[in-house]
Amino acid sequence: MDIMEQYIPVGKTGKTHGTEGELKFFIEENLLDDFLEAPAIFLSVGGKPAPFFIESARGENTLIVKLEEVDTREAAQPLAGVEVLLRKEDITTDATGPMPDFSFLEGFTITDRKAGEIGRIEEVAEFPQQLMAILTYKGKETLIPLNDAFILHIDEEARRIAMDLPEGLLEL
Predict the structure, then answer these.
(1) Superfamily name and number for 103-171
(2) In this predicted model, what pLDDT tens digit does every residue of 79-98 receive, in sequence order?
């Protein structure tokens, strides 16, 4: 492999899915076709791009991907929550630069103006048209849009995000 090869971040892996080694993938929408058609995808493992081949992919908003030779939940576990990369030459889309990385918000606690403390962000995922914070609220997985209109303040030192969420969002 050429040391000078350039890799472009196109998304992140999420949690494992099922027991057959599948993983959730969150891929930048405008790069989805390139991701699905690439001869190989690369996952950032130990800070270096490691090649993987897609055996199958399904799903709309959340992509469920089965990688070749990753056949158990245990084998997929170390690949959860890592950056997904493509070689520059495998990208046909006119990407306007790398997607902004909001993964630094993982571990921050979201508080709502009315509801108080909601929970700690487990994962930041990109969905079509917006970034979502994934967290557990009242025992179930909850998606909260990281939308400027809802964010009142981000305190990086205290690792807290103050938000004013729309009425009913937490009941979804």
Answers:
(1) PRC-barrel domain (2.30.30.240)
(2) 999 999 999 889 886 554 44
